[in-house]
From TrEMBL, chain A:
<dbReference type="Pfam" id="PF00496">
    <property type="entry name" value="SBP_bac_5"/>
</dbReference>
<feature type="signal peptide">
    <location>
        <begin position="1"/>
        <end position="21"/>
    </location>
</feature>
<dbReference type="InterPro" id="IPR039424">
    <property type="entry name" value="SBP_5"/>
</dbReference>
<comment type="similarity">
    <text>Belongs to the bacterial solute-binding protein 5 family.</text>
</comment>
<dbReference type="GO" id="GO:1904680">
    <property type="term" value="F:peptide transmembrane transporter activity"/>
</dbReference>
<dbReference type="InterPro" id="IPR000914">
    <property type="entry name" value="SBP_5_dom"/>
</dbReference>
<protein>
    <submittedName>
        <fullName>Peptide/nickel transport system substrate-binding protein</fullName>
    </submittedName>
</protein>
<keyword id="KW-0813">Transport</keyword>
<dbReference type="GO" id="GO:0043190">
    <property type="term" value="C:ATP-binding cassette (ABC) transporter complex"/>
</dbReference>
TrEMBL record, chain B:
<keyword id="KW-1003">Cell membrane</keyword>
<feature type="transmembrane region" description="Helical">
    <location>
        <begin position="9"/>
        <end position="27"/>
    </location>
</feature>
<protein>
    <submittedName>
        <fullName>Peptide/nickel transport system permease protein</fullName>
    </submittedName>
</protein>
<feature type="transmembrane region" description="Helical">
    <location>
        <begin position="130"/>
        <end position="154"/>
    </location>
</feature>
<dbReference type="GO" id="GO:0005886">
    <property type="term" value="C:plasma membrane"/>
</dbReference>
<comment type="similarity">
    <text>Belongs to the binding-protein-dependent transport system permease family.</text>
</comment>
<feature type="domain" description="ABC transmembrane type-1">
    <location>
        <begin position="94"/>
        <end position="312"/>
    </location>
</feature>
<feature type="transmembrane region" description="Helical">
    <location>
        <begin position="98"/>
        <end position="121"/>
    </location>
</feature>
<feature type="transmembrane region" description="Helical">
    <location>
        <begin position="292"/>
        <end position="315"/>
    </location>
</feature>
Length: 509, 326
C-alpha cells in the first residue's frame, strides 16, 4: 500500500514537472511599432511577423529557401511562378488557411506604403485552386522568391473590411492580429512588454520549439540589457554591443553567437558639394587612407568584416579579389597628383546611436583622413536627427549602413549607387551624387535578367566599376551577436537577417 | 491665502503658455517624425504625402494655433507611437514615476535628517567626518555610475534584486497601478529608488548640517539650554523645526533635479515611468508626446512649488504668504 502511494506520488510529481510551462524571456532593443505586419518595413516588425505569422518561404541559415506555408513552387513561364500551399493550417481564429488569404495578403502589401516598392513588380495573383496560386510579374523578375519571403499570409476573414493602413492613427490591424504562426499574442503593453503563448494547433509538428510562453521586453540601453541576462532576469538578448561581448564571454553559463551579416557600412563623398571629390584620384586617396582592418580590430573588436566592396560574399555581385587596401604613401602621392598636396577641409556627419560604435568609427576615420591632409569637421547626431540631415545632404561626407531587403546586390546599387532620380526613387540614398548612366543601365538589366550567369556577370561588372571609380568608401559588414543562457539553443535559430526563428527554439530542461 | 492662490494660478497660466511655446518650437530640432514611421526604402513623395496628412508642412504659427486650440480643451495631441492621446499615455505612466520619486524622497528624509543632525551636533565625531566624506563623494559621482554599480553588486553578483522593470503591480481605483503592495513590486523598486535617493541625499545632509549648526548658535537655543530643557527636545523640536525652513525651499527647487534624475534612473533600470517614456519619445521623434511631457512636467513644477510655499507657512507662522509677493 505504502509503495503504491509513493509510486502515485512520484508519478504525480513527474506529470506535474511535465506540466510546468517553459517561459522564454527575451530582451531586444526595439519593439514593433504596430501589430500590423504591413505598417512599417523594419527589423522589429519582421521579427514580430516571424513569431505570430508564417512566411510562404524563409531563408535558412545557409542562405537557401526553406518552404513554410508554401510547400513547393515552380516557374511556369518567364513571368509566372506557381506556389503550392500547405494544407490543414489554421489561423489563430480557427479560420482555415487557403489561397484566398495569400491573394488577399499580397494585394494588401501592394497598398502598403512601405512594402509597395518591393511588390510593385507583381502584376496579379491568380487563384488556381484552393491551395495553388500563380504569381504574375510585370517584367521578368529573378528575385521573385526573395520578395515572397515577405509574404506572411494574414487571415482574410478576420481583417477584411477593416484593414486600412494608417501610420499615425489607431486601426483594427494595428491592435488585433490573427496569423498562423507558432505563437499567439496574449498581452501587449505598448513600449514595455509583449506576452505570447505557444499556438496549440501549430501546423509544424516537427518543430522542436518548446517555449510555452514568450515574454518580449524591449530594453534600450545596452548595459541594462546585458545586466538583465547576467542577473538571470531574461534568457535571451540581442543585440550585444562589442564592448560588452568580452565581458559576457567571461561569465559561465552564458553563450554568445556571432554571425557575419550583409549590412554594409560606407561613406559617401558628395561630388556636388565638393569639386575635390569629382577627381577620382582624391576618392582613391581617401579609400587608401582609411584602414578598415584597424577599425574592425580596435573599435569593433573583430565583430565585423572589413569591406572593399558593397556586396557581401553571400551576394551575387561579390568579387573575390576586391580587398580593402590601406596605403598612406600612395594616398599622399595621389593627393599630390590631383593638386591637393596641402589638403583641404571637409565637413562630415555620422549617427551616434544607429550602428555599432558608429561615433567612434567616425572619429577614427577623421583621424585617418588627417594623415593625408584632409581636415574633417565631424558632427555626430542621434539617428532621428541624422537621417533628416542625410536627406538634406548636409555634409560633404556622410556615413550610411545598408541592408539589402532582397538579399541581393542590386538593391544596394539601386539605392546607394544609381543616379539620384526623385521620380523613380533610384539613388535615394546616393549622397555621393555619383552618377554613371552605364551603371544605371546595368542595374535595370540585372533587375530583369533571368539567366543566372549573365546576371552574375552584370552585378560583378557594376561592383568592379564602383571599385575602379572609388565611388564610395566601403567600410565593413557589421556582425550580429546574440547572447543567451547556456540551456537555450539559440545557435540553431539565428540567421544573418536577424529574424531569429523563435518558433523553433529548443530550451533544455 | 485665497489671493495668494489666485495670483499663483495666474502665474501658472503664464508659465504654461511659455513652456508650450518653447516645447513646440524645439519639435523641429528633434528630427523628422515621418522618417521614424516609414522604412528606409519609402519614396520621398510618399513621405511628403504623410507629412501633409500630419500637417507638418504647415507654418509654425498654424501648427501652434492648432495645438493651442486643442490644449485648451485638454487635448495635447495624439502620440504617433502609442496612437492614443498623449496626455492619457503620460498619465498612465505617472503612478510609476510618482511611486519611484516618493520612495526616493522617503529614503532621503529618513536617512538625511538624522545624518545631518548628527553631523551638526557632534561635528568632531569620527562618524560625522565619515558622513561628510561620503556625501562629498556622493555629490561628485554621477548617478548612472551609482546605478550601474548597484546593478552589478545587487543583481548580478548577489542576485537579491532584479535589474530592470517594475515587476508585478496591483490596481487601485481602476487607474493606479501600484507596485508598493506586493513583494515582487517592492523588490523591483529597491535599486531604482536607492540610486535616485543617493543622487539627492548628499546635498540634504550638508544643508541640514550647515543650517542646524547655524541655528544652534542662536539666542533662543542658548536660552532653552539655560532653561534646562532636555537635549532631545532642543535638538529635535526647537532647532530642527527652524532648520527645516531653508531645507524645504531647497527641496522645492530640487524637485527639478528629481525630475531630471528620474529620467536617468528610469532609463537605466527600464522603469516604465514618465522619464523613460520621454526618452523613448525623443528617440522615436514622437513630438506630440515630447511636448505633452514638457507641459505636464511644467505643471508639476508649478504645483510642487505652490505646495512648498504653503508648507512654509505651516513651519513658520510669521510668513505671510499674500504679502510675500509670491
Amino acid at each position: 500500500m505504502k509503495i503504491k502511494v509513493i509510486i502515485a506520488c512520484c508519478l504525480a510529481l513527474l506529470l506535474y514537472n511535465k506540466a510546468v510551462a517553459t517561459t522564454l524571456k527575451i530582451a531586444n532593443d526595439t519593439d514593433p511599432v504596430s501589430l500590423d505586419p504591413h505598417e512599417q518595413l523594419s527589423e522589429s516588425t519582421l521579427q514580430f511577423s516571424h513569431l505570430v505569422f508564417d512566411p510562404l518561404l524563409r531563408w535558412n541559415k545557409n542562405g537557401q529557401f526553406e518552404p513554410r506555408l508554401a510547400t513547393k513552387w515552380e516557374r511556369i513561364d518567364s513571368h509566372t511562378v506557381r506556389f503550392f500551399l500547405r494544407k490543414n493550417v489554421a489561423f489563430r481564429t480557427g479560420n482555415t488557411f487557403s489561397a484566398k488569404d495569400v491573394v488577399y495578403t499580397i494585394e494588401r502589401l501592394k497598398k502598403s506604403p512601405d512594402f509597395r516598392a518591393m511588390f510593385d513588380t507583381i502584376d496579379k495573383v491568380i487563384m488556381v485552386d484552393e491551395y495553388t496560386i500563380d504569381v504574375h510579374t510585370i517584367y521578368t523578375n529573378p528575385l521573385l522568391l526573395n520578395i515572397m519571403t515577405y509574404v506572411f499570409p494574414m487571415d482574410k476573414a478576420f481583417y477584411q473590411g477593416q484593414d486600412q493602413i494608417i501610420k499615425y492613427g489607431e486601426t483594427f490591424a494595428s491592435r488585433h492580429v490573427s496569423g498562423t504562426g507558432p505563437y499567439i499574442l496574449a498581452e501587449r503593453k505598448l513600449g514595455s512588454s509583449m506576452e505570447l503563448t505557444r499556438n496549440p494547433n501549430y501546423w509544424d509538428k516537427n518543430s522542436v520549439g518548446n517555449a510555452d510562453k514568450v515574454i518580449l521586453t524591449p530594453i534600450r540601453a545596452d548595459s541594462t540589457r546585458l545586466a538583465a541576462l547576467l542577473s538571470g532576469d531574461v534568457d535571451f538578448i540581442f543585440p550585444v554591443s562589442p564592448i560588452d561581448i568580452e565581458r559576457a564571454k567571461k561569465v559561465s553559463g552564458i553563450q554568445l553567437v556571432t554571425l557575419p551579416s550583409t549590412r554594409i557600412l560606407l561613406l559617401h563623398m558628395n561630388q556636388n558639394r565638393r569639386k575635390e571629390f569629382q577627381d577620382v584620384r582624391v576618392r582613391k586617396a581617401i579609400n587608401l587612407a582609411i584602414n578598415q582592418a584597424l577599425i574592425v580590430d580596435k573599435i569593433l573588436k573583430g565583430y565585423a568584416t572589413p569591406a572593399g566592396q558593397l556586396s557581401s560574399d553571400r551576394f551575387l555581385g561579390y568579387i573575390n579579389d576586391l580587398e580593402p587596401e590601406y596605403n598612406v604613401d600612395r594616398a599622399l602621392k595621389l593627393m599630390k597628383e590631383a593638386g591637393y598636396e596641402k589638403g583641404f577641409r571637409i565637413s562630415m556627419m555620422a549617427p551616434n546611436n544607429r550602428y555599432m560604435s558608429d561615433e567612434k568609427v567616425a572619429q577614427a576615420i577623421s583621424a585617418m583622413l588627417s594623415r593625408i591632409g584632409i581636415t574633417v569637421d565631424l558632427k555626430t547626431l542621434p539617428k532621428a536627427q541624422y537621417f533628416k540631415e542625410y536627406d538634406n545632404r548636409s555634409a560633404d561626407m556622410m556615413m550610411l549602413g545598408w541592408q539589402s531587403d532582397t538579399m541581393d546586390s542590386n538593391n544596394l546599387f539601386e539605392f546607394i549607387i544609381a543616379c539620384p532620380d526623385a521620380n523613380t526613387g533610384m539613388g535615394a540614398y546616393n549622397a555621393s551624387e555619383y552618377c554613371r548612366p552605364e551603371i544605371d543601365a546595368d542595374i535595370r538589366q540585372a533587375n530583369r535578367e533571368m539567366n543566372p550567369e549573365r546576371r552574375l556577370r552584370l552585378l560583378q561588372q557594376i561592383e568592379r566599376k564602383i571599385y575602379d571609380d572609388a565611388a564610395v568608401v566601403p567600410l565593413y559588414w557589421q556582425s550580429l551577436t546574440w547572447a543567451a543562457k547556456g540551456n537555450v539553443n539559440i545557435n540553431d535559430i539565428v540567421n544573418d537577417q536577424n529574424y531569429p526563428h523563435i518558433g523553433d527554439l529548443f530550451i533544455e530542461e | 491665502m485665497l489671493i495668494f492662490l489666485l495670483r499663483r494660478l495666474l502665474q501658472a497660466c503664464f508659465v504654461m503658455i511659455i513652456i508650450s511655446v518653447i516645447s513646440f518650437s524645439i519639435q523641429d530640432k528633434l528630427g523628422d517624425p515621418v522618417q521614424q514611421m516609414v522604412g528606409m526604402t519609402v519614396s520621398p513623395e510618399e513621405r511628403n504625402q504623410l507629412r501633409n496628412e500630419l500637417g507638418l508642412n504647415d507654418g509654425f504659427l498654424v501648427q501652434y494655433w492648432r495645438f493651442a486650440k486643442g490644449a485648451v480643451h485638454g487635448d495635447l495631441g495624439t502620440s504617433y507611437y502609442y496612437k492614443e492621446p498623449a496626455l492619457d499615455v503620460i498619465l498612465e505612466k505617472l503612478p510609476a514615476t510618482l511611486e519611484l520619486a516618493f520612495c526616493a524622497i522617503l529614503i532621503v528624509i529618513l536617512i538625511a535628517t538624522p545624518c545631518g543632525v548628527l553631523a551638526a551636533i557632534k561635528p568632531k565625531h569620527i562618524l560625522s567626518r565619515l558622513l561628510m566624506l561620503i556625501s562629498s563623494i556622493g555629490l561628485s559621482v554621477p548617478i548612472f555610475i551609482v546605478a550601474i554599480l548597484m546593478v552589478y553588486i545587487f543583481s548580478i553578483e548577489l542576485n537579491i534584486a532584479p535589474s530592470f522593470g517594475r515587476g508585478q503591480t496591483t490596481e487601485f481605483f481602476g487607474f493606479w497601478e501600484s507596485g508598493l503592495f506586493n513583494k515582487d513590486g517592492l523588490s523591483h523598486l529597491l535599486l531604482p529608488s536607492l540610486s535616485l535617493s543617493i543622487a539627492l541625499m548628499p546635498i540634504f545632509v550638508r544643508l541640514i548640517r550647515a543650517e542646524m549648526m547655524d541655528v544652534l548658535q542662536s539666542e533662543y537655543i542658548r536660552f532653552a539650554w539655560s532653561k534646562g530643557l532636555s537635549a532631545r527636545r532642543i535638538y529635535f523640536i526647537h532647532a530642527l523645526k527652524n532648520t527645516m525652513l531653508p531645507v524645504i525651499t531647497v527641496g522645492g527647487i530640487q524637485a527639478g533635479t528629481l525630475v531630471a534624475y528620474t529620467i536617468l534612473t528610469e532609463t537605466i533600470f527600464q522603469w516604465p515611468g514618465m522619464g523613460f517614456l520621454f526618452m523613448d519619445a525623443v528617440s522615436r521623434v514622437d513630438t506630440p508626446l515630447v511636448s505633452a511631457y514638457l507641459i505636464v512636467v511644467g505643471g508639476i513644477f508649478v504645483i510642487t512649488n505652490t505646495f512648498v510655499d504653503l508648507i512654509y507657512g505651516l513651519f513658520n507662522p510669521t510668513v505671510r504668504l499674500a504679502s510675500h509677493g509670491l
